[in-house]
TrEMBL record:
Transmembrane segments: none annotated. InterPro entries: Glyco_trans_2-like, Nucleotide-diphossugar_trans. Keywords: Transferase. GO terms for molecular function: transferase activity. This is Glycosyltransferase. It comes from Sulfurisphaera tokodaii. Residues 3-128 form the Glycosyltransferase 2-like domain.
């Protein structure tokens, strides 16, 4: 299995420790680091099995598709993605997950997309007599994809960063492919961009709406706790979420109920940037989402 970590201005010590922990689990894991043109030298990471540095920041989609071609060239059957801020747990064993997934073929299930990150998925129901659930959503970090599948179904590069994973799993389900998530968490996500607390009126209103919906949905389950307290410090993350959500929703390439997520995007962008700047950037995100010229927007935003 080839494990790909895409980096951009990473905490080099943290990623080096990630690589060491993975190698401790099995020498069979080959690690490819693709750096999206970090502003600082990454000398420690260059000693990884494979290290590629792009001449510009082209985003996750391009890096993932490059990794898929690379994995095919070196004869790997599966490709795994990890974020640069992923915590490797002691039970990390994606080879075991793949082996068990292959056994599902006897049930008529052909495993194409898997995940070892159950905390960040939307599971639906358990696959009988197995350790897997089928999932409505699987996120990037912890995703495992068969090389022959991703070769025919590449990621949308123009999304750049956010919603790549949601579009990918939605597309798979429409094609009759069930994304599967393993019941045992093997990684944890450690946000690397810094988190902030909601403070503006729009942010508090957003939290109140979320809490109300959550309470109504889980009113019969007292063990469920509401845990949405912070947001990423980078406003570009929320700009891309809004832009990409609009782009995918009007083209029916994401779940129909994502209109609710789009409303939430607007509130959070207002919280991050304030009212006037938030309104300005929201209009830009919606405009590019509607007209669909994401490549042009990416070039302006990231100087590609």
């Amino acid at each position: 299995m080839l494990i790909t970590i895409v980096t951009y201005n990473p905490d080099e010590e943290f990623v080096t420790e990630m690589v060491s922990k993975i190698k401790e689990k099995s020498k069979d894991y080959k690690i490819l680091i693709i750096d999206n043109h970090s502003r600082k030298p990454l000398e420690k990471l260059k000693s990884t099995d494979y290290f590629i540095q792009f001449d510009k920041n082209y985003g996750l989609g391009k890096a993932y598709n490059y990794a898929a071609k690379f994995a095919k060239e070196i004869g790997e059957e599966y490709l795994m993605f990890l974020d640069q801020d992923t915590v490797i747990l002691d039970n990390f064993n994606p080879n075991k997950v793949v082996k068990e997934a292959e056994e599902l073929k006897a049930k008529g299930i052909d495993p194409q997309i898997l995940s070892i990150n159950i905390d960040n998925t939307a599971i639906e129901k358990k696959i009988s007599d197995s350790n897997f659930y089928n999932a409505k959503i699987i996120v990037n970090s912890g995703m495992i994809v068969r090389i022959d599948y991703i070769g025919k179904n590449p990621f949308l590069e123009n999304l750049f960063l956010d919603r790549l994973d949601l579009e990918y799993t939605y597309r798979a389900r429409r094609q009759g492919v069930l994304p599967l998530v393993y019941k045992e968490r093997m990684i944890l996500h450690k946000p690397g961009e810094g988190l902030r607390q909601f403070s503006r009126f729009c942010g508090k209103l957003f939290l109140t709406a979320l809490y109300t919906l959550y309470t109504l949905r889980h009113k019969n389950n007292k063990n469920k706790k509401f845990e949405y307290y912070s947001y990423y410090s980078s406003f570009l993350r929320y700009y891309l979420m809004l832009r990409n959500d609009v782009y995918l929703w009007i083209r029916r390439r994401i779940y129909p109920n994502f209109w609710k997520i789009i409303i939430g995007d607007l509130f959070v962008l207002c919280e991050v940037l304030g009212y006037s700047k938030g309104f300005k950037w929201a209009l830009r995100a919606i405009r590019y989402g509607i007209i669909g010229d994401l490549d042009k927007d990416n070039k302006e935003l990231f100087q590609i």
